[in-house]
Design brief:
two-stranded antiparallel ribbon, Nucleotidyltransferase, domain 5, 6-stranded mixed beta sheet, alpha/beta, 8 strands
Amino acid sequence: MRQIVLDTETTGLSAEGGDRIIELGCVELFARKLTGNNLHFYFNPERDSHEDALKVHGISNEFLRDKPKFAQLADEILEYLSDAELIIHNAAFDIGFLNKELERVGKQPLKAYVSNIIDTLAMAKEMFPGKRNSLDSLCDRLEVDNSGRTLHGALLDAELLADVYINMTRGQEALLIDAGDAPGDSRTVTLNVDLRQFALPILSANAQELAEHESVLLQLDKSSGGKTVWRQLQGA
């Protein structure tokens, strides 16, 4: 499956209010592996960035003056994204801006060109309820090196998110051997392993591990307001 990890930087927070995209960064994954076929553009947004936005991305208005406008690159971007599954952190924000840019050039909304959109922020909230789930927080939690991220940048953030996504979904991998790294040279061999032939040891938790486990459950229970499934089952 071809997946594109995507991130944008913008002049501000409101696409409907006239803010524009100033940077687009895309990282391609195929069979959960980086291909190196990335896409990265800066745009002239035809307006200045808000002061708060400048503090986040550090991309000056002067730097963007001679960059192409989104309209000049829209067809190339859509061709690159065509039929891919998009992976975006806080997808509603980026999709809202991309849809507005596409609307300006007479194109359909982004969902008409891609196969699916995965929001890693929504995934993280389910996996880590009650925790901070910003990209930096997820990098720290999943041991993804983000030491080079002093300011937000679309391509760097997409590269980091690709690592975060792979770590978050590692348990979903099947027993597959990928015989090729590129879409044109990909063959998959499925291994059927009968686990009944193995004598699997049963390792019981010790007292300390049980106590630590209970502590984690209590924290999750507190953060969810006592609505955790296991508490409901205990009362059943």
